[in-house]
Every structure is written in structure tokens, then in C-alpha cells.
Please model this.
Amino acid sequence: MGYEEWKAYMLCVFSNICLAGFNIVSKVSLNKGMSRYVLVVYGYAFGTLATAILVLLFERNHKGKMSKAVLRDIFFLGLLGAVFGRTLYYAGMEYTSAAFASAMGNLIPSFTFVLALLFRMEKLEIGKVSSQAKIWGTVGALGGATLMTIYKGVVVISPHTHSHTHTSYHQPSKAFLDWEWIKGSLYLLTSMLSLSAFYLLQTATLRKYPAPLTITGFMCFSGTLLAAIMTLILDHNLSSWRLSWDISLIAPIYSVS
Model:
């Protein structure tokens, strides 16, 4: 295996490590009381600034024409990525956990595969091993997501285990059908579906305008504006916009990664 192949694998591992950190930092900031809507706005705003610097460094001389079709796609990328994808992801994380949200992210390839088939962006040839693997992988991912949604599990270690031993037999089990957990799972499922559509649209947009950094910058800017409008409508607390030198500042900056 050559250096370039090793490099690709190592970058994938590194990106997943960053994603794990993103889930943990985001969950902590949400638990500290940060508004999910404001977190989306600041995250995309910082992303816009960071990407603008990269565009000036690496794509300043790009000669492509920004057509109306590309601008339309950028609007929907912001809508799918920020308003639906990221906001619902944070909402689902609030009702579940960082580990659960990370696990549900495995649904994105399955949803992307199904959507690609529906929009005829990919062909399904049952006779090929690769197509069979995709089908069984999709079925397995959906089955796992269903099981994780309806079965929360039981507490293994709890600080109240000893102090409440005498009442444990009289409390109903919450292993099955925890409605808050199911609500969060549905938020996450919708978020994964939105992000899958986002990736397909992003691929189509890059074919029209092959400048990934520029598209990412405009997408972040579109997401910032749309998320800000959403926040003004749904969150009327002005104090939610205040950033402090703590996790509320680290979370949106970290989300740029």
C-alpha cells in the first residue's frame, strides 16, 4: 500500500476523531444551557470566516462562473446543512447522548445510498457483490438504528444504586419506550436524512462549479443567514447570544473542524 493510500486512511481516522470530539464538546455546551439555535449560527459563522481565508489562499484565481443554478443549490445546501441537519442533530443530542448521536451517524451512508437510487444517481446491479454489500449494509444499519431507538438499555453503574436499592423493585423499567429517547432518535434520524440529501446536492453542485472551498464558503454563509433567521423566530432570549470564555466559545469554534 502506497503513501497516498495510507494518507487517505489516516485522514479518515483523524476526521472521525475530530467528529467524536465535536459530539462531546457540543453535548457539554448544550448541557450547560447554550441554545442549539445559537450554536448553529456561531458554528457556521466561524466556518464562513475560516473558509474565506482558505479561498483567498488557494482559490483566489478560480475563473468559474457562479450561475443562478449554483446559487440556488447553495441556498438549499445551507437549508439542509444548517437549518435541518445541524439543528436537528443538536436537538436529538439533547434528548439522547453524544455516543448515541455519533452511532446514528452511521446511517448517513445508508440514507445516501437509498436517495442516490431514488434520484438515479447510482445504479443497482443485484448480481454484483458490491451492490449486495450495500443492500445488506443498509438493512443492517436501519435495523440497528431501530433497535437503538426502541431499546435504551438499563443503567449499569449509578450513584444511586445503593441508596435506592429498597425501592428499585417498585419503579417501572425505562429500558423500553423511553419517549424522550425516541423523540431524540427521530430528530437524529431526520437530521441524518437531511445530511444525506446535503451530500448528494453538494456533489451535484461541485460538478457545476468545481471549486470546493468556494462552494463551502458560500454554503456556510447561506447556513449562517438561514440559521440566524430561524434563531430570531424561535429563540427570543437575547442572552442566548452571549459568548463567554468557556465551553460556549469552544463549541462553535470546534464545530468548524
